[in-house]
Design a protein that fits this description.
single chain; alpha/beta; TIM Barrel; seven-stranded mixed β-sheet; binds (2S)-3-(carbamoylamino)-2-methylpropanoic acid; binds zinc ion
Length: 481
């Protein structure tokens, strides 16, 4: 299918320039003026609009089985909602229960994701350790296109792993040329605090942030950073929500350590007052981990994004409807953790980031698409507007506005954490593999059109890291005669 995006201004991570873009066969064929295109080419008029790489959301959980239920968003509705907001690729998570084969979990998630209407990939979680896990990590990197492994430092008695597993798994990641990622909260402290707070009779959603203070996140972030430092592996910390984890990443990066930080659109805009709302369902709808923080943390996270200390934005899209959240009516510890956002991330970042002057349009492309593509080794196939790249593009109206609401969003959930927010900056057209899937407010998606995207490991980059590590080896202690 031949499509010409005509009259627009191309905006990439590096540059901004006027050019038409011709897509055919799912890839970008030509970029320039007066392009020669075949008869029957569909023309998308982009005058006054920006042509950017489609967004990449590196952190979603479609139809995740979690806390006794299953996230309400499935891979078809979730990728469709992403396209409606300008996101053309998600990286989701295959999360085996402890003692379950990583390959079994990977195959299960691959089956669920077949219905996707936009491209997707998977991080694989390390929720236990054995020689089998070690071996299967090798199979996943060599044969299944996985180059990132997730570690939950929270969720005790479920998927939390101890430090020993972090050390062994990060070492294995280094061997394989894969990047370890972490959910950084001290799960032992969270569990202990939960018991303390419940014992005081605090059972409502207001107890959730009390049991997960920022210090508990900062401690875990720093611990993961030190494990990676000693092992010599890179590290990617997901959903940084507070100054404490940001400061840990800043220290590490200033010391030359390869640590990447992700921030959620929700954590950039929403503060912890939501948990004190008298409406139980409203407060419970915001229960996610790490929790939304007090206002000073949002300012710090924006500074981190502007400074390049945080490289990517995501949503951690993990939706539960009111009846599911009600499982925690008697105790906040039973409220399924998770909120949505895959449809709104791009508009929220443009509205609160570019329209306020915090980010340039090029930086917007970096933090919504290009950086994630580079970190996870799918650039420039993804995250670029370049000849030969996948034709995953968003035609962006920088002046367009819309009001975000659960009443109108395409997400399969009965709540929207950005409810009522009028945003500036909207996707006018979204192309996936060169096919217009979102146009003027209407979705036109094909179930199953989404592809699994292999993410190769980083041998070359890791050779450099290993060489650096070799230089760092502690000098041999000469045994005294
Ligand atoms: O922790 C996560 O990233 C998953 C389980 C989604 N839930 C959440 O509260 N963030
Ligand atoms: Zn998490
Ligand atoms: Zn998550």
């Amino acid at each position: 299918m031949s499509t010409l995006i005509r009259g627009g201004t191309v905006v990439t991570a590096e540059q901004t320039y006027r050019a038409d873009v011709h897509c055919d066969g799912g890839v970008i064929r030509a970029i320039g003026e007066k392009l020669d295109v075949p008869a029957g080419t569909r023309v998308v008029e982009a005058g006054g609009l920006l042509v950017m790489p489609g967004g990449i959301d590196p952190h979603t959980h479609m139809e995740l089985p979690f806390m006794g239920t299953v996230a309400s968003e499935d891979f078809l509705s979730g990728t469709a909602a992403g396209l409606a907001g300008g996101t053309t690729m998600i990286i989701d998570f295959a999360i085996p229960d402890p003692k379950v084969s990583l390959l079994t979990a990977y195959d299960q998630w691959r089956g669920w994701a077949k219905k996707s209407c936009a491209d997707y990939s998977f991080h694989v979680a390390i929720t236990w350790w054995s020689d089998q896990v070690r071996e299967e990590m090798g199979v996943l990197t060599r044969e299944r296109g996985v180059n990132s492994f997730k570690h939950f430092m929270a969720y005790k008695n479920a998927i939390m792993v101890p430090d020993e597993n972090l050390i062994l798994s990060f070492s294995r990641c280094l061997e394989l040329g894969a990047i370890p990622t972490v959910h950084a909260e001290n799960g032992e402290l969270v569990y202990w605090l939960q018991q303390q707070i419940l014992a005081q009779g605090i059972t409502g959603p207001e107890g959730h942030p009390l049991s997960r203070p920022p210090e508990v996140e900062g401690e875990a972030a720093n611990r993961a950073i030190q494990v990676a430092n000693m092992v010599g592996s890179p590290l990617y910390i997901v959903h940084n929500s507070c100054k404490q984890s940001l400061e840990a990443i800043t220290r590490a990066r200033l010391a030359g350590q390869r640590v990447y930080g992700e921030v959620l659109a929700g954590h950039l805009l929403i503060d912890d007052s939501v948990y004190r709302n008298p409406d139980w369902a409203f407060a419970a709808a915001h229960v996610m981990s790490p929790p939304f923080r007090s206002k000073e943390h949002q300012a710090a996270l924006w500074e981190g994004l502007q400074a390049g200390t945080l490289q990517t934005t995501a949503t951690d899209h993990c939706c539960f409807c009111a009846p599911q959240k009600a499982a925690g009516k008697e105790a906040f510890t039973k409220i399924p953790n998770g909120t949505g956002g895959v449809e709104d991330r791009m508009s929220v970042l443009w509205h609160a980031g570019v329209a306020t002057g915090k980010l340039t349009p090029n930086e917007f492309v970096k933090v919504t698409s290009a950086n994630a593509a580079q970190i996870y080794n799918v650039y420039p196939r993804k995250g670029s507007v370049s000849v030969g790249a996948d034709a995953d593009l968003v035609v962006w109206d920088p002046k367009g506005t819309r009001t975000i609401s659960a009443r109108t969003h395409h997400q399969k959930v009965d709540f929207n954490i950005f409810e009522g927010l009028e945003v500036t900056g909207v996707a006018r057209y979204t192309l996936s593999q060169g096919r217009v899937c979102w146009a003027d407010g209407k979705l036109d998606v094909q179930e199953g059109a989404g592809r699994y995207i292999n993410r190769p490991t980083f041998p070359a980059a890791f050779e450099a890291i290993k060489a650096r590590n070799a230089l760092r080896q502690p000098t041999r202690v000469e045994r005294r005669p």
